[in-house]
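Today's session is about reading a structure prediction critically. Students often jump straight to the picture, but the first step is always the sequence itself: look for stretches that repeat, for charged clusters, for runs of hydrophobic residues. Only then move on to the predicted structure, which in these notes is written as discrete structure tokens rather than atom positions. Here is the chain we will use throughout the hour.
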Amino acid sequence: MTSVPTLVLDGRFARELPELALPWQAAETPEPRVLALDEQLAAELGLDPGWLRGDGIGLLTGTHLPEGATPVAQAYAGHQFGGYSPRLGDGRALLLGELVDDSGRLRDLHLKGSGRTPFSRGGDGLAAVGPMLREYVVSEAMHALGIPTTRSLAVVATGRPVQRETVLPGAVLARVASSHLRVGTFQYARATDDLDLLRRLADHAIARHHPAAADAEHPHLALFQSVVAAQAALVAEWMLVGFVHGVMNTDNMTISGETIDYGPCAFMDAFDPTTVFSSIDTGGRYAFGNQPVVAEWNLARLAEAILPLLADDQDAAVAVAVEALGAFRDLYSAAWSAGMRAKLGLPADVDASEASSLVTDLVALVQADHVDHTSFFRGLGAAARGDAEPARGMFLDLAGFDAWTARWLALGPDADAMDRTNPVYVPRNHLVEEALAAATDGDLTPLDRLLEAVSAPYDERPGLERYAEPAPDSFGAYTTFCGT
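Below is the predicted structure for this chain, in token form.
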């Protein structure tokens, strides 16, 4: 069995960028108890699941770490709903260190809900069971969908009550990521006016995430171009599965291109670009349809932060950055269009303009009739096999659907390919709420059943029918909260 003495938690981030790392300790947990543990992820990290559930639980709470480990709260800035905050940082989180996984990749081991830090800004630094399990469920669903994401290793109940609107049971999330470098990390470094720090941060990001940039003629420009490409691809994948992040602040955009910080996130039921779930997004800044625009805006803030690295002359640096950022829209459009072709099972020889017209007309149809996003695309696979009724029954405009379907079927869609692209199961909002409410009351059975469904989202299985169904009308409008 794995034991603490053989476990190495490196401190590369803190060692290379000490200006961005504040050594700190996790709060004690009176009665720690594992609520959820990804045993496969644990094995990838060389951690024995049995040990983690027993003597090793202190690793998951940050309270008993291997010798030499130095947990740190990371410093970063960020634009939150468009307003700049120069000093955010890990207000309820700690980077425990880095592990090397079984593929030789460096992975962060990070906590949320581990107690107050100097970045807490009046908060208690704690987290409740429900929000931490939400991140566990949704991040694991995203991973199973093949979308780049931070991973959830475990959620541990702390035995400490947390005061929110009511008193709730507390929890700590142990999260794994390629790193926790954010656009906001670069904004913080730039605000220090320490050009050496900014350059070291950029070089750290290149080495860790975009090593090919090191060999480019202009490595820091190549880094920015790589982040632009990674984020264009990521947001396109969100849009293709109906995922709404909910809080796309610049401190929630990674340099790696992984989805991070699952707070007021949710999957869209009825297709509607104006969909907003977050209780605090009253203006719809982070609505489903705005996500590509916001991503581009965030990347512009990254460009501003690294301008001194792009050219000695500011005007020249701005010109270089504008040109590089200009690639985002084409990259996003290409990724989304390719994804839509795959969702429709279109053969490779279908003309691009014909495919574009087909997609445009379909989006108008599903939006007008508020068709369930996930069910429709999965049902379309049955239509490709000759049974159009599952998809057709979702529409009011039957003539419009029939006309569109005739055009689409004439192109010979591949139903098997569609089933590999269109999930049966996503974390439906009503099921997530059901599971979190039960878990908060001590019953983990609904959570386990939901995880069973979303961990293999493309494989339709008997007995899981309710996990493929939209929310009942009685569920009503859905609102999420950030959990702080």
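Discussion point for the tutorial: The longest strand covers residues 151-163.
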